[in-house]
Each structure stands twice: as C-alpha cells, then as structure tokens.
Design brief:
CATH architecture of the largest domain in chain B: 3-Layer(aba) Sandwich
Shape of chain B: globular
Shape of chain A: elongated
Number of helices of chain A: 10
CATH topology of the largest domain in chain B: Rossmann fold
Low-confidence stretches of chain A: 1-16
CATH topology of one domain in chain A: MetI-like fold
Helix content of chain B: 25-40%
Number of strands of chain B: 13
Low-confidence stretches of chain B: 1-16, 348-365
Oligomer: heterodimer
CATH superfamily of one domain in chain A: MetI-like
Mean pLDDT of chain A: 88
Number of helices of chain B: 15
CATH superfamily of the largest domain in chain B: P-loop containing nucleotide triphosphate hydrolases
CATH class of the largest domain in chain B: Alpha Beta
Largest interface: A-B, 26 and 32 residues
Distance between the termini of chain B: 43 Å
Order of helices and strands of chain B: EEEHEEHEHHHHHEHEHEEHHHHEHEEH
Largest sheet of chain B: 6 strands, mixed
Number of strands of chain A: 0
Structural class of chain B: alpha/beta
C-alpha cells in the first residue's frame, strides 16, 4: 500500500502507543505506529468486523429500496390511472424526504423501538419521492400514438401496461433506482445511531480511534465502493433490458 | 381464439377474405357538446373496396373511423361488419380483427420491426412458427429485408419505412377490414406519392375492405373506390365513386370541396384507352418515325391534354401495347368527353367496377 508510508506516519504521531487497546498486544508495527493505512489490520478484521458490517449494509439498502420500489410502483400505477392521486402522493413523499435523517431515525424510535424496523421505515421513506416520481414520469412519457395503436390493435389496459407502458418506462424507472440506491447506501451509514448494523458501525468506532485512520478509511471506502458497484450494476441492467434506447438510425 | 381462424394459410390465398361494412343511421354526440359529431350516417362499403372518408376538419372523419372499431362508443344506429353488428362483439376481440393504421404510426419503439408486426398474432396466441412465417411474408410484401428486420428497431427506419411497417403490422392477422387514419399525412410529398402507389399495388394483392381517412381530396380521388364526403357536423354530403363525385357533385358544398379544377381531376382518372379516338390520320408505321406526338393508351387524359397544350394543340397518337397507333386524340375529343359525362345522368361509373352503387346523394340533406 502506497499509503503505508513510515515517514509520513512518524511525522504525524512519532512512536505513539497503540491507541486501540484491543489490538495492543499482537498488533503489527503499522498499527502500533498509527500508519495511515494498515492492510494487515484490514485482513485481520475483515471476518469479525468489516464483512458483517458490509453484509448488513447491503441488506439494509436492498430491503429498503425493494420495499420502496414496490410501494412507489403501486402508487405510481394508481396515480397514472387516477391523476388526482399524484398531488397528495407528491406532497407526502416530499415532506418525508425533507425530514432530516437523524431526526427521523430518532422520531421512529419512540413508537417502533431502536430496531431494524425503524431503520427500514426511515430508509424506505427516503426512496419514495425519487422512485414514485421517476416511475410516474416514465409511464407518462409513453407517446399517445403508441398507446392509441396498442388500444386500436386490441390490447387490454393490462396488456398495454405490461407490454408497452412499463417497458417504455424502464429507462426512467432505472434512472430513479440508481439515484435511490446511491442515496440509501449513503444514508444507511447513520442507521448505527438507532440500530447496530451497517458500515456506520465501524465508521462510528473509527471516529473514536484518534490518530488510527485505517478503520475509517476502509469502512468509508467500502460504503463508497458499494454505491459505485450498485450503480454500475444498474447501468448494466439497463443496457440489457433496454437495447432499443441505443438503436439509432444507422 | 376464434379470430385466429380468419387467416390460415400463407401466400396470396390467405388474403382472399374481406368483409362488407355497413353503417346504418350511426350517430354520435360527445359528452358536454350540444351538436352531434356524427348525424345519421349511413353507407355501405362493399367487401374489398377502399372507401375514403374525406371532409374539412370537424366533419367527423376520424370519429366515424373510431366508431367502427368501437374506440369511441356508438350513440345511435348500428355498424355491421360482415353482416354482424359490432355492438355484439367484445371490443378487444373486434379490434384484433380490424387492421389499424394511424398518421403517427405508433410503432412500439422498444420492439423490433418483426416483433411490432407480430403484435396482433401474439395477442391472438398464434403458435410461434405460424407468426414467424407470417411476419416474414409481410416484411417481404413491403419490400424490406426479413433478416435485417428481425433486430432493427423503429428508430432505425426512415419515415417511409416506418409507415410501411405500420401497414404490415395492421395486416398481420389478415383482418377483413383495415382502418387507416391519414396514414400518409406526415410523409413528405414525394414519398407520399410513392407510398400511395405502393399501397394501391398492395391492396390489389390483398383486396381488403379499407376505410381510409384523409382531408386531402386529391388523395381521396386517387385512393378511393368510393368516397364519402362529410361536411361539418358529421353529415354525409355525398357517397359515390370518385368519377361520379367529380362529374355530378351532389351540391355546392361538394363542388367547392372537390375544387374548381374538378374537370382536370376527372381527366386524371380517365385513360386514353377510354376515349372515342379518331381514325389514325396516316399509316401506322409512319407515326413513330415521323416524330409525331404519341403516348401509350394507359396514359391519363390529363397528361395527354398537357402534352397537346404545350405542343400548340397538335393531336396525339395513341399507341397500343405493341406500339401500333390505335387512334388519334385531339382537344376536341376531350371536350366531347367532358360534355358527355356532364350531360349523362348520375350513373354507375364508366369502368363498371361498382355494380351496387348507392344513390349518389344519399344522406345529403
């Protein structure tokens, strides 16, 4: 690791005692000397600390976006058919979206308890505005003449929805999912305040580790990496599902 | 599904059936409007004929078309397709049996050309092999390459190609009736003529009953076996063959709508072969050698007149298929034709293609 530079570390805290009591005795010299990044610390702690946090983080985000997607899709389909539902839904989801996340987490603890449910409720509520709006925009972007042709050829409403409207709404839906996923992966790092899960846990621990930065860097880095990988996967899904969007006059 | 039985085989024989369409006192008033959009509309389109609905905007052309496949509900009267009331039919099942082409085409952008054409067969649950064979046949029919069209999307086609695919898609389940709402309205003039000619050739092969909506009287005259001229408020002004409408317009509205140049339009519908030609003025062999004006017999009279006018009224020799002079046409011959047609009572068209003609002014008032 290029970051593992003795010169720099010594300049920062020369010959310090190991700051993490737990690792004091068997610690490598990298940890003992508080070098900026210790790969051996990461490999030692991958199994007991980092991987469980990453796995928990993925689950938190996946469950939140999935539930948010199902709710938003349902609301968008109803709003698409009955236009009046759009405004109330927009108002409610916008209000939810504006509540400061820490406040929302704390607000939920009283009625729900400091558990996975209040964590997921909070995360889900932040996906609704993005997903609802993008799904509805996608459904509305289907050209009138395409719907007219679908009806004129004898498709039922359901067939038109499944065969025409939803496929054509996919680019907008996936665009919404990308924003929602990245947002939720970032937000899930503060779930630790009410529930001991996710990459927020090692990040929070790291904040108490003074000059020892490895845990902060690796846990924060994992959160960023996770967001990037999830976004890239969704781009890939979009490319596979919507080949027509790249078809242009040859 | 029972509708799948309407077309079983591939090849020209599959195109044989077409159904008669009859409108009986049809009326429609949109909710919240005082005046009806369609008033007591009655006419019959014989099986295999192209009926053009033409009229100014607000005359209910598109409404009439959409009443037929029940995309708009009928308020009064009845519409019979192949002798059976469309009101008895389940609307979606009815629509799958009626080809539907609109001006903006409405191809599905996310489906390949082949998948677009396969839309109705797939709604009808045709087996894959049958659908594939049918799609291939149709793509060839509209002069596109079946292999290429398997994975081409509509965005990769030209406007004219898209419109042809729209027609092929409407023909996919071999429907007995086609509805076409200004199908060539958004195409540039040169390609429009090409598509019109192509459709007429296609129609010659498939012989569908077609209801064709346009606001362009020239297109109506060119495409229609019969023309229904509608006036504002959805009243039928005249229903007749193009020739009868041009020769005997039912009233001032129709005369004005077809235009002051209706004489010329009529000449465009007549070929030299239909004229009473004068005897050739000299031996056949000389004609071409002399460099005298000559035209094949299937030239329109309008083009012949145009040629004669540019040549200071010199007569034109009419050539038969082998290039022999059949006779001579002069401006006087053409004048005779116009005078005779105008004097004749409204009658079946000269080409005899419409045996069961309706009274020309039916529903005019």
């Amino acid at each position: 690791m290029g970051l593992d530079s003795p010169a720099l570390a010594e300049h920062v805290v020369a010959a310090a005692e190991p700051v993490i009591p737990n690792y004091g005795a068997q610690s490598s010299s990298c940890v003992v000397h508080n070098h900026l990044f210790c790969t051996d610390w990461v490999s030692h702690n991958w199994g007991p600390v980092l991987w469980p946090a990453l796995r928990g983080h993925i689950l938190l985000a996946l469950v939140a976006v999935s539930i948010g997607f199902v709710i938003s899709l349902g609301l968008a389909l109803v709003a698409h058919r009955y236009g009046w539902l759009e405004r109330p839904t927009m108002i409610v989801t916008t209000i939810l979206y504006t509540i400061p996340s820490l406040a929302l987490f704390e607000l939920l603890v009283a009625p729900v308890g400091p558990n996975v449910y209040s964590a997921e409720i909070a995360l889900v509520s932040y996906t609704l505005l993005i997903l609802f709006r993008n799904i509805l925009t996608g459904l509305r972007s289907v050209p009138d003449e395409v719907l007219d042709a679908a009806e004129g050829m004898g498709m039922s409403r359901r067939q038109a929805l499944l065969r025409v409207e939803l496929p054509l709404a996919l680019p907008s839906i996936i665009a919404g999912l990308r924003i929602a996923v990245v947002t939720i992966i970032a937000l899930a790092t503060i779930v630790y305040t009410i529930y001991n899960e996710g990459l927020g846990v090692p990040i929070h621990t790291a904040l108490g580790e003074g000059p020892f930065k490895t845990e902060l860097i690796v846990a924060g880095g994992l959160a960023i990496l996770l967001a990037l990988v999830a976004d890239a996967l969704l781009v890939l899904v979009q490319r596979l599902l919507t080949p027509w969007t790249r078809a242009r006059a040859a | 599904m029972n509708t799948a039985d309407t077309a079983h085989s591939e090849g020209p024989s599959a195109f044989a059936q077409a159904a008669e369409l009859e409108l009986r006192g049809v009326s429609k008033r949109y909710a919240g409007q005082r005046e009806p959009a369609i008033r007591d509309l009655s006419f019959t389109v014989p099986a295999g004929d192209v009926c053009v609905l033409v009229g100014p905007s607000g005359s209910g052309k598109t409404t009439t078309m959409r009443l037929i496949n029940r995309m708009i509900s009928i308020d009064g009267g009845d519409i019979l397709l192949g002798g059976r009331s469309v009101l008895e039919r389940e609307p979606r099942e009815l629509r799958r049996e009626i080809g539907y082409v609109i001006q903006q085409i409405g191809l599905f952008p996310h489906l390949s050309v082949a998948e677009n054409i396969a839309t109705v067969p797939s709604l009808l649950g045709w087996p894959k092999e049958r659908t594939r064979a049918r799609v291939r046949e149709l793509i060839e029919l509209i002069d596109l390459d079946p292999v290429e069209m398997d994975d081409r999307y509509p965005a990769q086609l030209s406007g004219g190609q898209r419109q042809r695919v729209g027609v092929a898609r409407a023909l996919a389940a071999d429907p007995p009736l086609m509805l076409m709402d200004e199908p060539f309205g958004a195409i540039d003039p040169i390609n429009r003529v090409r598509l019109q000619d192509e459709f007429l050739r296609l129609q010659d092969k498939v012989k569908k009953t077609v209801v064709f909506v346009t606001h362009d009287i020239d297109e109506a005259i060119k495409m229609g076996d019969r023309i229904a001229i509608l006036r504002e408020g959805g009243v039928l002004a005249q229903y007749d063959t193009p020739r009868e409408i041009l020769t005997h317009p039912a009233d001032d509205f129709v005369a004005q709508f077809v235009g002051a140049d209706r004489g010329l339009k009529r000449l465009a519908l007549t070929t030299l072969a239909e004229l009473e030609l004068l005897e050739p003025d000299r031996p056949a062999a000389d004609a071409a050698a002399n460099g005298a004006l000559s035209l094949p017999r299937d030239t329109s009279v309008r083009d012949a007149v145009s040629l004669m006018l540019t040549a200071n009224g010199e007569p034109v020799r009419v050539l038969d298929g082998e290039g022999h002079v059949e006779g001579l046409v002069t401006l006087a011959v053409v004048e005779h034709l116009l005078a005779d047609e105008a004097a004749a009572p409204p009658a079946p068209a000269a080409d005899g293609s419409s045996p069961q003609i309706e009274p020309s002014s039916q529903g005019a008032r």
